[in-house]
Design brief:
Elements lengths: L2 E6 L7 H15 L3 E6 L31 H9 L2 E9 L2 E2 L1 H12 L18 E6 L4 H6 L2 H16 L4 E5 L18 H28 L1
Parallel strand pairs: 1-2, 1-3, 3-5, 5-6
Antiparallel strand pairs: 3-4
Helix pairs in contact: 1-6
Bound molecules: flavin mononucleotide.
The site of flavin mononucleotide (FMN) has 16 residues, from helix 1 and strand 3.
Length: about 220
Amino acid sequence: MKKIIAINGSPRRHNNTYDIIRACLDGCEEAGAETKLYQLADLKFSGCVSCFYCKNKAVPHGHCSVKDDISPILEEIKECDGLVLGAPIYFMNISSLMAAFLERLYFSNYIYNFDTPTVFPKELPSAFLYTMNLDEKGMEHFHIESMLWPFQKFTKVILGRQPEILYACDTWQYPDYDKFESGMFDVEKKKDSRANRWPKDLEKAKEVGRKLAAL
Ligand SMILES: Cc1cc2nc3c(=O)[nH]c(=O)nc-3n(C[C@H](O)[C@H](O)[C@H](O)COP(=O)(O)O)c2cc1C
């Protein structure tokens, strides 16, 4: 049975990003895979400390010297059949939780060698699921795809395959738009997105999961 690991890079454990990841994992399970979800918000860990242990010629490559809560997950990912990375967009980029996680996962499996820059042990199918306030027009205006391109690029280099990508836009950020300063938002448009667009995004995430489990 295929094993798919998912990582939630949102500090909110059960909100938009979780829902999108959950739908994707439902798709994986429908396609016969077993799944496991890690909440980065529950774990104590740091980003890369730039010690270059992973590139030291005297030790086997592909291992991070930092020992913390994500150390076993970095090793477990080498054994799995698919990786789902879910992140909210913060200040036009991935959340710091996900950025720190990827620094550790990707840099420890990357060596400065043009011929074989990756030491990751196999080709691993993956999916990036992004959630954000912006709609498509806003995404274009703020060049979100260009901002996120390096993550896709390094995924191809290190995991050996282009990731599947899903942008879930115009998310419902909090339950009560009257309670918080929200003048920047067209709340009626937000409501409409929540009612009509969000279910479609969940369905797309499910489809990504089915595809991932079949790769
Ligand atoms: C610190 C912070 C920064 C944010 N910056 C952006 C942003 O630059 N662009 C955007 O579209 N949404 C931004 N958002 C909104 C979130 O990306 C969006 O609501 C997301 O769906 C939240 O995911 P969650 O429900 O899993 O927490 C920001 C939210 C926070 C808390």
